[in-house]
């Protein structure tokens, strides 16, 4: 009898542990990937446009701790780059997708 009771106790602890783990999984899966992506704002000058890519000499971007630099950005939608050419002053929003900087909006200054 004692042995059965001990077995039941062990089994319920294991079930609780499993349940807690399953809850964690649910939380991870329930979080949509796009909802927590931070959008950063930048100001800069277009250096070059090529296809969906634009080289921008941007000012400091404090939200990322970036110094002013010239670097490539990619536009998910090529239409964002319409009318841009070397020398165009812009303000822009972007998200970091792994090591890529994806433009989400561009405004000419
Ligand atoms: Cu940069």
TrEMBL record:
Xref: InterPro entries: CusF_Ec, CusF_sf
First and last residue of the signal peptide: 1-22
Keyword Signal: yes
Gene3D superfamilies for this protein: Copper binding periplasmic protein CusF
Keywords: Signal
Keyword Signal part of the UniProt annotation: yes
Protein name: Cu and Ag efflux protein CusF
Biological source species: Andreprevotia lacus DSM 23236
């Amino acid at each position: 009898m004692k042995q059965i009771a001990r077995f039941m106790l062990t089994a319920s602890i294991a079930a609780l542990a499993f349940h807690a783990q399953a809850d964690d999984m649910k939380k991870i899966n329930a979080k949509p990937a796009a909802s927590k992506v931070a959008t950063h704002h930048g100001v800069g000058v277009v250096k070059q446009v090529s296809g969906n890519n634009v080289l921008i000499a941007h000012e400091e971007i404090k939200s990322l701790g970036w110094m002013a630099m010239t670097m490539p950005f990619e536009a998910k939608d090529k239409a964002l780059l319409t009318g841009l050419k070397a020398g165009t002053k812009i303000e822009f929003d972007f998200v970091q997708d792994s090591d890529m900087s994806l433009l989400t909006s561009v405004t000419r200054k």
